[in-house]
Amino acid sequence: MSTPSPKGQLTRDEVAHLAHLSRLAVSDEELDLFAGQLAAVLDAVAQVGKADVADVPPTTHAVPMTNVMRADVARPSLPRDVVLAGAPAAEDDRFRVPRILGEEA
Amino acid sequence: MSADLTTTSAADLSRALQAGDLSSAEVTRAYLDRIAADDGELGAYLHVDAEAAVTSAEAVDAARAAGEELGPLAGVPLALKDVVVTAGVPTTSGSRILEGWRPPYDATLAAKLKAAGTVLLGKTNMDEFAMGSSTENSAYQVTRNPWDRDRIPGGSSGGSSAAVAGGLAPWSIGTDTGGSIRQPAALTGLVGHKPTYGSVSRYGLVAFSSSLDQAGPMARTVLDAALLHEAIAGHDAHDSTSIDCPVPVLAEAARRGAEGELAGLTVGVVRELGGEGHTDGYEDGVLDRFSAAVALLESMGAEVREVSCPAFDLALPAYYLIAPSEASSNLARFDGVRYGLRVGDDGSRDLDEVMALTREQGFGPEVKRRIILGTYALSAGYYDAYYGQAQKVRTLITRDFTSAWDDVDVLVSPTSPTVAWSIGARVDDPIAMYAADLCTLPASLAGVPAISVPCGLSEGLPVGFQIMAPALADDRCYRVAAALEAAQDAARGHRLLDELGAKENTAS
For an interface test with A, which of B97, B345, B366, B372 has the most A Cβ atoms less than 10 Å from its Cβ? Predict the structure, then answer.
């Protein structure tokens, strides 16, 4: 990856890297478009930096979150054929996926 | 009941159905006829199954004829935003990546509404994955505002707002992450309520930003919204963020509010949302309508005072960091493996490449922008400056609300800084689009309930009035909204939406 740019900047190369991390095969035209738009958006959202947040705890959720436990009792799940009916590809009662290792592996 | 079925309130439909003066098949067909006649142009629905609707309506009629005990909503038609997962009924969330998907289960709220005997007319259009404020980010179609068909219906629940305002559904479920129920309701002259976060189950809503998403009612009257809200509220073991508390009493609050007695109520007008020194981006017509509505509340006995919530100024940047961050994580599930689209699986590509091609083709530009922005905000080295900082700003916003509740019972503001804008006007400018959410974001970030109720027209287009209340005090929103609605209806001699009907009749 390219060297991180100063805060508030988002270069075309960085957008390409982020798109790769996000598993988005963006086109060159999209890269040009997004780089400009995202730089403007980042500039706007960077205003959060203006807030004085010394000693302010972060809020992750509007309601206090506690771990929710349920009784360890088996419940019926969706039937396999119903689940696989929505899959883009299925084989032998399983989801079929493209190979997960590269040629050299 | 006959000719005006599609302008009748859901509460009146419910009464007529229970009294046996109306059959569900009759009202369902009336709506299906309107959809057939007008939705080609309006574009409110992504999916309508007329046959299934009539079949379930007839089943309700048969049950009633057989003397079965039915709930008050039985036989009343309904539209659901396409973000709500419905068993066997196509659910796309406005995205190509879910085109053709028929979910194997019902969202909790869909199951509740089904059990209540409501009749599903169809699924309504929306911005893709609820990301947008105009419904123009739908991968499928443009939805038009019934008040002016060259304008947007708001978003992201714009299919729902257009359907209900346009007479193509008596009421509808929307979802609100940053304003997506309230803003489209405001822009189409409807009532829309975002419930307290956690009070309506999120199980089976296609997730956008999990700490913010909340489903709620969109309706033509405050009472209708309250009735629909009561039908979907309540604790759900399938949603770990669901609040375990009794279903709120809202219809009663709406009925009481309509009596117009607000003595003892203290209303805080938020300075930062259109008040002095904070009018940039607000249309004069919107501010005028808003002030007139505040004066009306005062005339009904409410005590009005200005309240300053300085952190609200940073709600927009905080939201546009938090929501994309959560979205970038939530949308990782769309990997082309278990459901939805898969692209490029021709044997020559590995899983990573197929995933990247699938997501490239399946997601639209706004979704990609938000995933990229969210991925950035969560990256090592930037996390503290962006996502972490935004979460702290979220705390400051919550604190502003908390201290306001020491002095006032509700906070009010315009729902949207502007009326509905022209289709296409903001599509190339994400920042201008985001500014539409200025007034609705604080309540979203704090998780407090907020309602939008119409407060008149500006340049012939509806203006919304927002009422925010403390968490779990949704009834206050309904009470004040009903008071305002009743006073305005009495003053003008008819409902605001009747003017839309009159306008359409003049045009045709």
Answer: B372
Closest CB to B337 among A19, A58, A95: A95
Q: What is the pLDDT of residue B94?
A: 98
Query: B365, A30: Cβ pair inside 8 Å?
Result: yes
Number of A/B CB contacts below 8 angstroms equals 188
Close Cβ partners of B439 (under 8 Å, ≥ 6 residues apart): B179, B273, B274, B413, B414, B415, B416, B417, B466
B-chain residues within 8 Å CB-CB of A29? none
- Cβ separation of A97 and B320 shorter than 8 Å? no
Beta carbons of B320 and A46 less than 8 Å apart:
no
Does A98 contact B350 at a Cβ distance shorter than 8 Å? yes
Q: Are B150 and B127 in contact (CB under 8 A)?
A: no
Residue A105: closest CA among chain B residues belongs to which residue?
Answer: B350
pLDDT of residue B501: 79
Confidence of residue B507 (pLDDT cuts 50, 70, 90): low
- Helix, strand, coil percentages, rounded to 5, for chain A: 35, 5, 60
Gap from B337 CA to chain A (nearest CA, Å): 6
Give the Cα separation of A15 and A30 in Å (integer): 10
Q: Which residues of chain A make contact with B431, given a CB cutoff of 8 A?
A: 40-41, 44
Cα distance between residue B92 and residue B81, in whole Å: 10
Confidence of residue B3 (pLDDT cuts 50, 70, 90): low
In b/e form, how buried is each residue of B272-294, taking b as 16+ CB within 10 angstroms? bbbbeebeeebbebbbebbeebb
Q: What is the token pair recorded at B52?
A: 């299934």
Cross-chain Cβ contact B350/A101 below 8 Å: yes
How does residue A105 score in pLDDT terms, banded at 50, 70 and 90?
Answer: very low
d(CA B202, CA B128): 18
Q: What are the DSSP E strand ranges found in chain A?
A: 90-91, 94-95
Select from A29, A35, A33 the least CA-distant residue to A17.
A35
For residue A39, give the chain B residue with the closest CA. Answer: B373
| Domain definitions of chain A by residue range | 1-50
Nearest to A19 among B365, B372, B447 (CB): B372
Structure tokens belonging to residue B89: 């009924």
Mention the CATH class of domain A1-50: mainly alpha
Q: Write out the two tokens for B252.
A: 């009663």
Token pair for residue B423? 């289709």
- Nearest by CB to B314, which of A51, A83, A102? A51
Domain ranges within chain B, ordered by starting residue:
5-310+400-507, 312-399
Q: How far apart are CA B463 and CA B153, in angstroms?
A: 12
At A71, list the tokens: 């009784």
Instruction: Indicate which residues of B carry an active-site annotation.
Output: 81, 156, 180
Question: ipTM, 2 decimals?
Answer: 0.91
Give the domain B5-310+400-507 fold.
Amidase signature (AS) enzymes (3.90.1300)
pLDDT per position as a tens digit, B471-495: 999 999 999 999 999 999 999 999 9
Average pLDDT on A62-73 reads 83
Asked if the Cβ–Cβ distance from A97 to B328 is below 8 Å, we say no
